[in-house]
Structure formats: C-alpha cells, structure tokens
Amino acid sequence: MRFERGSGILLHPTSLPSGFGIGDFGKEAFRFVDFLVEAGVAHWQILPLSPPGQGNSPYSAYSAFAIDPIYISPAKLVEANLITDDALANSSPWSDRVDFDAVRGFKDGLIRIAFDTFQADISLELRGEFEAFSGEHSWWLDDYALFRALKSEYGERAWFDWESSLKLRQPDAIATARTDLADNVGREKFAQFLAFSQWSDLKKYANAKGIAIIGDIPIFVALDSADVWCNRDEFKLNDDGSPRVVSGVPPDYFSPTGQKWGNPIYDWEAMRHKGFGWWTARISHTLRLVDAVRLDHFIGFARNWEIPRTDETAVNGEWVDVPGHALFSTLRHRLGDIAVFAEDLGEVTEAVEKLRDDFGIPGMRVLQFAFGGDAGNLHLPHNYIPNSLAYTGTHDNATTVEWWKGLDKNARAHAKNYLKTTGREIHWEMIRTAFASVADTVIIPMQDILGLDAKARMNTPSVGHGNWGWRMADNAITEEIKQRLRDLLTLCGRVRRGGS
C-alpha cells in the first residue's frame, strides 16, 4: 500500500488525560481526534491495544486479539447505566503518571459491577449486542476468556505451571473448566465486549472526521499468552511448555549486549504447513480494529535472532531464516493489498530489503538516527524516498529535547550544520525538517509536539521498569501549538485533504 503525503501524531491512548488515572476511550480521546482535525493531521498512530503481561508492555501481551479492558471509559459505563456515579466516587487521587496496578484494580472492580448489572437487569438490545459479539469473535474469544479465568484461578501463574491436563488442553479438562468457571469466563467476555464497543465508537468518530488510525503488530507474542497455550505446535517449545529458544536482537544502537525479549520463537515451517492461518487471522483481525498497521521488528519476517533460553543476554544468539516471502504471498492472496508498513530498523540486510520491496511495503526513517556519520546515512532527509514514513523519534527513543541534550560533540555539530539551528527550539526544527522531506507520511510523537524532556519518555528498551506511564497534561494542547502545527503542515503540503 502507498500512503498519501500527510502527517500523523503518535500518542497511545494510555497517555491521554482523564480523571481516572489513565487515558481511555472516553471524551478526551474524542477531543484528541478533534485536535487532529483542526490541526490538519491525517493519522493517529497508537501502540498495540492488547492486554499486557508483566511490565505492562503492550509488546508482550496475553493475547494478540484481545483489547486491554484498562482502556474502558468509566464515564461511558455510567452513560450506559451499567454503573452509577457512586461507583466512581471511591476512586483514589491519581498521579500524573499511570499507576497500572492501582488503575487495573479500580477498573476491574467497575467491570464486575457492570457485569452484575448486565446479568441482573439490562435491556434486550444490549444482551443481543453482547451475544452477537460473542458469536462473531468466538474463534479467539472463547479460549482467551477461559485462559484469563484459569490464570485467575491459579493465582495468575503462567499456563505452563498449571496442572498437566489443563496445560496440555486435554478435552475433558477444558470442558470441565468451562463449566466450573462459567461466571468468570462470562465476565471476561463481557469486558472484551465493552472494550471493543467503546473502541469501535471512537474509531467510527475518527474515520467520520477523516482521521485514519495506525495500529501496531508486535511480531512476537508472550510465552504466557492464550496464543501460545492454544497453538503450542506452532512455536519452538519443549514438551513441558518451556521455550527452546527465545527472541531478541543483537547488540545495536539501543544496547551493547543486545536485547533479550524472551518471547518464544515461531515454528515457521509448522506455520507454513498450516497455510499461515494464525498470521492471516491476526492481520485480518487487526485491520478491522485500525486502518493501517506498523509491522514491528520487520526484520523478523526475514530472519530471527534466536537466543538460548538460559542465556542472560542476547549476545550469543544466532540468525535463523524465516519464510517471509511465502507468508506475505499468502497474506496478499487471502487479504489483498493490506495497509501495512515496516519497522525496518536495526540490522537490515539485503534479504530484509528484498522482502520489503518485493511487496511494496513502505519502510521507516528516524531523524534522531541521522547525525554523527556521513552523507550516506539513510536517516538523513536527503536520502529519504517517497514510499516511506519518517519520524523524529519513536516510542523507543528519547524525546527530541532529551536526545538533543545527550548528543555527543560530533553529532551535535553535524545536526546544527544540517538543520541550520542553534537548538533553541530543536523539537520544532526537527519537525519542520521531517515535514519538508519527500517521505509520504511523517509521524511525530506527541511529546515532540509539546517539546517535553526525559520525564515524558514512553519506553527505554532493555529497561524492564518505569516504562509506558507518561500522561499528557489536561491543558497541554494550546491554540498556539495547534496553529503552529497547522501552519507547518500547510507550508509543507501535508494538510489533511478535506481538513477544516
């Protein structure tokens, strides 16, 4: 797919303002869409919406298909008469960063109340909508809801630590568990119904305003996930469910010892034998939730860095080839010209480039990676190509203000000369430079629009704590910022078509 010339802003819903400790699918999300419209922006890019496991990373989730109920708007539950205002009165004062444990406990309590209300006295219309949702999504929802109910029953222990009959999904044990845990399974399904319904309303609003939403597909899934529990034969696992090898990347810009992510590695040959059915379902499902998708760690579709499970770091991994051409040929045959682009950062080989280019998939450029080398650096704007998406930085980078403060002498001198800047407003200089490039689409993290420092960083790769918690202040988006953004977009020919 070829993206039109335009722009986008990267902001995960958790970072939106709200009165309940975390951004959600409520009124502030709709206000953010209005801001994008008024500024002339075309895209809203988000991170994965999946329910995260330990560490709260959306890139290590319990399911590739579910939506985290933490995004459910309490105010919208009140509007739907599923909870009362009194249920919100007991919420604690919230900090300016997300306290995931506290917020999750609060939201779980609201969902329990809403489910009890639904079961006791609710309109036939809502019941019909829930049953229709459950039927349409049963192919993944039934197993996911049981998985979460069983995790709760086992004190949140991982599936490979359950009793053997459940770990191995023996039919009699699974049938008994569905009966014994029916209420909890039903509540998990209802939580998904609420999350999908609220997200659908938000997406419809954005699309009606001309805003396209860009989602994100992590290439790997978590070991402790419904995906692996239900598809063990499609991963490189031992008989006890432990992984033989795990995912990561070799030493690079982010880490001198590489990154050991710990996700199980796909058994790509087994997946090929099954016609890549799981991948087809995953891509198709995600493209119903969003309008376009970033394929995270695209190099993993050409080869995987397989790390011995017992190693502490990623240094001793090895590259193993992946049948990426067969996969994307299958996806194209079944789904047509899918709206995806590649996060092709890191060790990009000729094989990775060929896979990307053979299927016409746009790649990425990151302006923060441009300086300190020679004129051939692909991240320098004079080397951009139209069929690409350019960023000042991503969710894994420092904010531009933080990045500028940490530049070494050589890179700073190069950047000053290239950008013709003193660095006084380095975030706007970087934004202007990216907008002026030939890249079809330029995406700017909201932190860079606001000129924020290290406190607003979203994620530091290889650091397992303190990430994902940044929240935007209520009054952060001013009329001055909105107008300045629109003026730059107008100057560079990137104002959204039909923009007001």
Fold and architecture overview:
With 500 residues, the chain is α/β, with parallel strands linked by helices. Helices cover 41% and strands 11% of the residues. It is built from 19 helices and 12 strands. An 8-stranded parallel β-sheet has the order 9-6-3-2-1-12-11-10. α6 (138-153) crosses α9 and α12 (277-289) packs across α13 (324-335). The chain is globular.
Helix count equals 19
Output the strand order for the largest sheet. 9-6-3-2-1-12-11-10
Proportion of residues in β-strands: 5-15%
Helical coverage, percent range: 40-55%
Query: What is the first-to-last residue Cα distance?
Result: 26 Å
Average pLDDT confidence is: 95
Tell how many strands the DSSP assignment holds: 12
Radius of gyration over C-alpha positions, nearest whole angstrom: 23 Å
The rough form would be described as globular
Assembly form of the protein: single chain
Please describe the biggest sheet, giving its number of strands, its sense, and whether it closes into a barrel: 8 strands, parallel
Helix and strand composition category: alpha/beta
Low-pLDDT windows of residues: none
